[in-house]
Amino acid sequence: MIEGKLIVFSAPSGSGKTTIVKHLLNQEDLNLEFSISATSRAPRGDEQHGKEYYFMSAEEFKKHIKNDDFLEWEEVYRDNFYGTLKKEVYRIWESGKHVVFDIDVVGGLDIKKLYPERTLAVFVKPPSIEELKIRLKKRKTESEDRINMRIAKASIELATAPQFDYIIENNNLKEALDESYRLVKNYLNN
């Protein structure tokens, strides 16, 4: 198995990490493939199994935990699990590509701990908590209670930023995209 590098993008929900990761995936010279996470939550909007996430029941997720099938996993909210299946990372490495993650801060730091020499961990920082709330409301995918839960969690997540290799402040999307590209390109070339 050829083992590539791991590029982790973590941030509170609504910070722009998904937009950044999608941009990087479109840059063919980076040779990246998206690591599809597993989750026990229901699909949102037109999300599809095997594309955005591997959707499974909480019982099925717990079975994978018991079988040690995850590189990392976390119960992000009560009965709402997210994780990275080991076979997903191996599949990407075997295809000769580098793995890029759009992942929760705890999961991102767990991957960095497992593979410190070959992981670039990037934290995407939103302009403010107020802006984060506006972005989450614009999505129109979650209730006010869920948004408030995400905002409360964001304050805790922001405190983890210094544990990452780099912090990108997403005040201007174009600048954040350019900075992310340069950062990943430099990392992959070293």
Give structural notes.
This protein has one domain: Rossmann fold. The chain contains seven helices and nine strands. The chain has helices at residues 17-25, 58-66, 86-94, 105-114, 129-139, 144-158, 173-189; strands spanning 6-10, 32-34, 37-39, 53-55, 70-77, 80-85, 98-103, 119-125, 166-169. Strand 5 and strand 6 form a beta hairpin. The model has no long low-confidence stretch (mean pLDDT 92).
What coarse outline follows from CA principal-axis ratios?
globular
**CATH hierarchy, class:** Alpha Beta
Helix fraction by DSSP (H/I, runs of at least 4): 40-55%
CATH topology: Rossmann fold
Supply the CATH superfamily name. Answer: P-loop containing nucleotide triphosphate hydrolases
From the helix content, strand content and strand pairing, which structural class follows? Answer: alpha/beta
Q: Give the percentage of residues in beta strands.
A: 15-25%
Rounded mean pLDDT is 92
Domain module tally? 1
Strand order of the largest sheet: 2-7-1-8-9
Care to count the β-strands? 9
Largest sheet: 5 strands, parallel
Rg computed from alpha carbons, rounded to a whole number of angstroms? 16 Å
Number of helices: 7
What oligomeric state do the depicted chains represent?
single chain
Distance between the termini: 21 Å
- CATH second-level architecture: 3-Layer(aba) Sandwich
Low-confidence stretches: none
User: Would you list the SSEs in sequence order as H and E?
Assistant: EHEEEHEEHEHEHHEH
